[in-house]
Amino acid sequence: MVIRPKQREMIYKSKEQWHWFDCPRQLGTNSPDTPVENAVIDTVELREGDVVLAMSDGVIDNLWGHEIVENVSKSVERWEAGEGGQASGPRKDGANGGMTFVAEELVNTAKQIAQDPFAESPFMEHAIDEGLASEGGKLDDISVVAALCRRNTT
After folding, report:
1. Which whole-number Å values give the CA distances from 66 to 38, 39, 60, 76, 91, in the listed order?
2. What was the pLDDT predicted at 150?
3. What is the Cα–Cα distance from 79 to 81, expressed in whole angstroms?
4. Organism's domain of life (predicted)?
């Protein structure tokens, strides 16, 4: 997913790839899915200040896209305002340590929903659409890598 925090907008989201509901493609060891046959390559025009997120399904099963955008945007604002630990330089756009803060905040939010048996979640909504009984968040691996797009000054 690519988020433009200053405008609070999602400018790109990859399409989920499933064999069937709750059985995602996996481009890893011991999987029949292969990068050559199953990987998707997209081109996205980025701007300085955009945040690129690589997330596990434990995040997107528990948070809707608008919640991710809001969480990242607020985390960048909080980082710029001095929250989230020591910076190794200017905090503009979430630079100099801010992406660690952004990733940690997103993981924590997804984890809260995953552990809430009464939460409404995207996974619950999809399960109901498939005719399956489901309530609350979905316990799963929750991983986030956040990267800030910056101009190369070298």
Report:
1. 27, 25, 11, 15, 24
2. 94
3. 5
4. Eukaryota
CA distance 73 to 90: 18
Overall average pLDDT of the 23-28 stretch: 82
End-to-end CA distance of the chain: 27
Looking up tokens 């607020």 gives: 74
Q: Which residues pair with 18 in a beta bridge?
A: 24
Bridge partners (DSSP) of residue 20 are: 23
Query: Could you tell me the two tokens for 93?
Result: 């756009």
Residue 87: both structure tokens together: 């910076």
pLDDT digits (tens, 9 = 90+) for 44-95: 999 999 999 999 999 999 999 999 999 999 999 999 999 999 999 999 999 9
3-state helix, strand, coil in the chain (%, to 5): 35, 15, 50
Tell me what pLDDT residue 16 has.
Answer: 84
